[in-house]
Amino acid sequence: SKTFQGPPHGIQVERDKLNKYGRPLLGCTIKPKLGLSAKNYGRACYECLRGGLDFTKDDENVNSQPFMRWRDRFVFCAEAIYKAQAETGEIKGHYLNATAATCEEMIKRAAFARELGVPIVMHDYLTGGFTANTSLSHYCRDNGLLLHIHRAMHAVIDRQKNHGMHFRVLAKALRMSGGDHIHSGTVVGKLEGEREMTLGFVDLLR
């Protein structure tokens, strides 16, 4: 474990960037996640941020489809952030999904997000792979970007009774590879899990 650098920044740096302390950070995933144009997607981000959220985020399969190419989405989401910030006086953010087919393309997308001034990018670490995740984590650390991790595909690995590995192992491996925060599930809702198990994930990640 000594050879791994771990999360790019961590919660304290995130709070410092946002200038928000003493309370949980509140965000949401934009829905419908597929089918919106980049302009309409950006408008939804603006309305959520203007309404009081700290963050909005891409979902795991919001990537670069014909109806919403990644570069267009990045630009409209950045506009939404700046407009909401100007009207609320608060620092806002949007988790831009930088997941791509190659490490080079992923770094290119993260670099574009940084040029736009967006504070955070996102990676689907199981579909992207640990090597790609570590590469992106190093870039984020060196360039002041926060890194959010989506756990898409985890259920194929950790919810099988006869094979696979526990999410505790996947989460710990992710922490070593690098990620400022990761989905841990919740006790209610779509990502429902057992209370004690979910609290165990949260404790492990801290």
TrEMBL record:
<dbReference type="GO" id="GO:0009853">
    <property type="term" value="P:photorespiration"/>
</dbReference>
<keyword id="KW-0479">Metal-binding</keyword>
<keyword id="KW-0120">Carbon dioxide fixation</keyword>
<dbReference type="GO" id="GO:0019253">
    <property type="term" value="P:reductive pentose-phosphate cycle"/>
</dbReference>
<dbReference type="InterPro" id="IPR000685">
    <property type="entry name" value="RuBisCO_lsu_C"/>
</dbReference>
<dbReference type="GO" id="GO:0016984">
    <property type="term" value="F:ribulose-bisphosphate carboxylase activity"/>
</dbReference>
<keyword id="KW-0150">Chloroplast</keyword>
<keyword id="KW-0503">Monooxygenase</keyword>
<keyword id="KW-0601">Photorespiration</keyword>
<dbReference type="GO" id="GO:0004497">
    <property type="term" value="F:monooxygenase activity"/>
</dbReference>
<comment type="similarity">
    <text>Belongs to the RuBisCO large chain family. Type I subfamily.</text>
</comment>
<feature type="domain" description="Ribulose bisphosphate carboxylase large subunit C-terminal">
    <location>
        <begin position="10"/>
        <end position="206"/>
    </location>
</feature>
<dbReference type="GO" id="GO:0009507">
    <property type="term" value="C:chloroplast"/>
</dbReference>
<keyword id="KW-0113">Calvin cycle</keyword>
<keyword id="KW-0456">Lyase</keyword>
<dbReference type="InterPro" id="IPR033966">
    <property type="entry name" value="RuBisCO"/>
</dbReference>
<keyword id="KW-0602">Photosynthesis</keyword>
<dbReference type="Pfam" id="PF00016">
    <property type="entry name" value="RuBisCO_large"/>
</dbReference>
<protein>
    <recommendedName>
        <fullName>Ribulose bisphosphate carboxylase large chain</fullName>
        <ecNumber>4.1.1.39</ecNumber>
    </recommendedName>
</protein>
<keyword id="KW-0560">Oxidoreductase</keyword>
<comment type="subunit">
    <text>Heterohexadecamer of 8 large chains and 8 small chains; disulfide-linked. The disulfide link is formed within the large subunit homodimers.</text>
</comment>
<keyword id="KW-0934">Plastid</keyword>
<keyword id="KW-0460">Magnesium</keyword>
<comment type="function">
    <text>RuBisCO catalyzes two reactions: the carboxylation of D-ribulose 1,5-bisphosphate, the primary event in carbon dioxide fixation, as well as the oxidative fragmentation of the pentose substrate in the photorespiration process. Both reactions occur simultaneously and in competition at the same active site.</text>
</comment>
<dbReference type="InterPro" id="IPR036376">
    <property type="entry name" value="RuBisCO_lsu_C_sf"/>
</dbReference>
<dbReference type="GO" id="GO:0000287">
    <property type="term" value="F:magnesium ion binding"/>
</dbReference>
<dbReference type="InterPro" id="IPR020878">
    <property type="entry name" value="RuBisCo_large_chain_AS"/>
</dbReference>
<keyword id="KW-1015">Disulfide bond</keyword>
